[in-house]
């Protein structure tokens, strides 16, 4: 199995007080953890890549813990999440798909009993590429107030032979959510949908 070689990492936390309407008494926190690793499959086609997901699991857990700490450390305060990957130009989109299990299950593990699937996105890109990471409620994907996204990226990543791996968490709904649908307080959380 290839070794996970980390070049750099970053944590970004936004505090959103309003979006033009009244200021919220408690600002929404939206945070991202980004790790830039060497892509062990860059520059060539490799048939068997799935085992690299196991190698990425410790990094996923480390990133999830660091992001939770940056958001205040309380798993109960996290209401939304998402994940993504930007693959450098010498890689392929499938290399970003390797992040599905290690990234998603890491967040679900540290948040306790999160039921909803972790939404995801991936793309190929050069250094400075931005990625809109989708966000949904941690226990029910149909909670409309938590449909969101966070744009992330780093000025020098990913290089052609790298992958930028991303986790995102939020502490609540969009700051002025008011378009109806299933309310977070009405979630049953049995199937990850409602």
Query: Which descriptor suits the 3D outline?
Result: globular
Instruction: Give Rg in angstroms.
Output: 17 Å
Low-confidence stretches: none
- Number of strand elements: 7
The share of residues in helices is 10-25%
Secondary structure tally, helices: 3
What order do the SSEs take from the amino end to the carboxyl end, as H and E? EEHEHHEEEE
The fourth-level CATH homologous superfamily is BB2672
Q: What is the number of domains?
A: 1
Task: Give the CATH architecture.
Answer: 2-Layer Sandwich
Instruction: Report the span from N to C terminus.
Output: 39 Å
**CATH class category label:** Alpha Beta
Sheet bearing the most strands, described?
7 strands, mixed
Mean pLDDT value: 95
Which class do the helix and strand fractions yield? alpha+beta
Beta-strand content: 25-35%
CATH topology: 60s Ribosomal Protein L30, Chain: A
Describe the SSE topology.
Blueprint lengths: L5 E11 L11 E11 L13 H19 L9 E8 L5 H5 L2 H11 L9 E5 L6 E7 L10 E5 L9 E9 L24
Parallel strand pairs: 3-4
Antiparallel strand pairs: 1-2, 2-7, 3-5, 3-7, 5-6
């Amino acid at each position: 199995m290839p070794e996970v070689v980390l070049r750099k990492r970053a944590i970004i936390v936004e505090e959103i007080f309003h979006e033009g309407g009244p200021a919220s008494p408690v600002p929404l926190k939206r945070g991202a953890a980004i790790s830039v690793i060497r892509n062990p499959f860059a520059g060539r086609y490799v048939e068997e890549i799935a085992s690299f997901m196991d190698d990425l699991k410790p990094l996923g857990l480390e990133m999830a813990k660091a992001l939770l700490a940056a958001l205040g450390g309380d798993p109960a305060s996290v209401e939304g999440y998402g994940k993504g990957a930007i693959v450098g130009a010498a890689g392929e989109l499938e290399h970003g798909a390797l992040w599905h299990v290690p990234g998603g299950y890491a967040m679900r593990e540290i948040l306790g009993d999160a039921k909803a699937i972790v939404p995801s996105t991936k793309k190929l890109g050069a250094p400075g590429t931005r990625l809109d990471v989708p966000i949904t409620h941690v226990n029910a994907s149909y909670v409309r107030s938590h449909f969101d996204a966070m744009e992330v990226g780093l000025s020098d990543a990913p290089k052609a032979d790298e992958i930028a791996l991303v986790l995102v968490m939020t502490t609540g709904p969009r700051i002025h959510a008011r378009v109806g649908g299933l309310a977070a307080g009405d979630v049953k959380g049995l199937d990850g949908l409602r």
